Amino acid sequence: MKRLLGIDLGGTTAKFAILTLEGEIQQKWSIKTDVTNDGKNIIPNIIESILQNLNVYGLSSNDVLGIGMGSPGAVDSKKGTVIGAYNLGWKTMQPVKDQIEAATGLPFFIDNDANVAALGERWKGAGEGEDNVIFVTLGTGVGGGVIVEGNLIHGAGAAGELGHINVDPNGYLCTCGNRGCLETVASATGVVRLALDFSKSDSEESEIKRLVDDGKEVTAKIVFDLAKQGDPLALKVVDQFSIYLGVACANMASILNPESIVIGGGVSAAGEILRENVEKYFLQYAFPPVKTSTKLKLAQLGNDAGVIGAAWLVKANYI
Questions:
Q1: Is a pLDDT exceeding 80 seen at residue 203?
Q2: Is the pLDDT of residue 309 over 90?
Q3: In this structure, is the dihedral angle defined by the CA atoms of residues 304, 18, 89 and 159, taken in order, positive or negative?
């Protein structure tokens, strides 16, 4: 029986999984991502780990249909190259596909990490069985992937940059150079930014205000946890966050009308309080037919979305 090999390359670790053709994970492991020396060791380390672990699990290249990978940065999925993955130290073009295929003798497929996580959630997660899915990942930044009629959308190269939907033209400055991108208010750092600003202008008694005044750390998790406990300032921050994300989801859905918008990433660990609040504003702003046909869901696969979606890249080329 042939297997699929999926890799989720991140700035801290590279996660690997061997999966069945049905998408069931059989083995998992990870290695540290060596970002020293402009990331020169990353691909050699990945190759070494693949060969070593295939051997450990008694598999040869004949047992594997191919290798799929999700990577940060600007990925050319046709050429199999990556550039601008600055958290990996990759400032120049990396010929990832050529290197891995030459060393393993296996077909290799690659896409942007957020796109690949979208494929994972669509194959085995919250969007399973659906052909039209938008995946929004709320982490340090905001990313995403758009699947329309079963196909990942790349556009002219940069489709799916959901974090740069503008939700406030006079808002915070984004790392991309524009003002008011979704990423500035709906990422983990964006939630904290809202909390700090609200604590300056709000006179109400609040645990967040106390933390800020005492110079203690405030995180997105703390904000949502305090909101669950009814902290007035935390509730205001969550409400403002939900307006921004609800408007963005309504706009996406009014254009593409997916069956599901799946919300994942670290911030989504807040759970149902996040989904319900965002849904409230989504239903307020979406085009009427979209309100009944598009559902907002929380991601289900957690850290496995990347390796499962990477394995799908392989399978999709043989269907």
A1: no
A2: yes
A3: negative
The pTM assigned to this predicted structure is 0.94
Q: Provide the pLDDT confidence category of residue 227 given band limits of 50, 70 and 90.
A: very high
Task: Tell me which residue of 257, 241, 263 sits closest to 182, measured CA to CA.
Answer: 241
Cα dihedral sign, 310-262-271-143: positive
- Token duo for residue 147: 């699947």
Q: Nearest 5°: CA angle at 307, between 302 and 310?
A: 130
> What's the mean pLDDT in 146-169?
93
Architecture of domain 130-300: 2-Layer Sandwich (3.30)
Fold of 3-119+304-316: Nucleotidyltransferase; domain 5 (3.30.420)
The DSSP line for the chain is --EEEEEEE-SSEEEEEEE-TTS-EEEEEEEE---HHHHTTHHHHHHHHHHHHHHHTT--GGGEEEEEEEESSEEETTTTEEE-BGGGTB-S-B-HHHHHHHHH-S-EEEEEHHHHHHHHHHHHSTTTT-S-EEEEEESSSEEEEEEETTEE--TTTTTT-GGG-BS-TTSPBPTTS-BSBTHHHHSHHHHHHHHHHHHHH--S--HHHHHHHTT----HHHHHHHHHTT-HHHHHHHHHHHHHHHHHHHHHHHHH--SEEEEESGGGGGTHHHHHHHHHHHHHHS-HHHHHH-EEEE-S-GGGHHHHHHHHHHHHTT-
Mean pLDDT over 190-194 rounds to 97
* Residue intervals in the chain for CATH 3.30.420.40: 3-119+304-316, 130-300
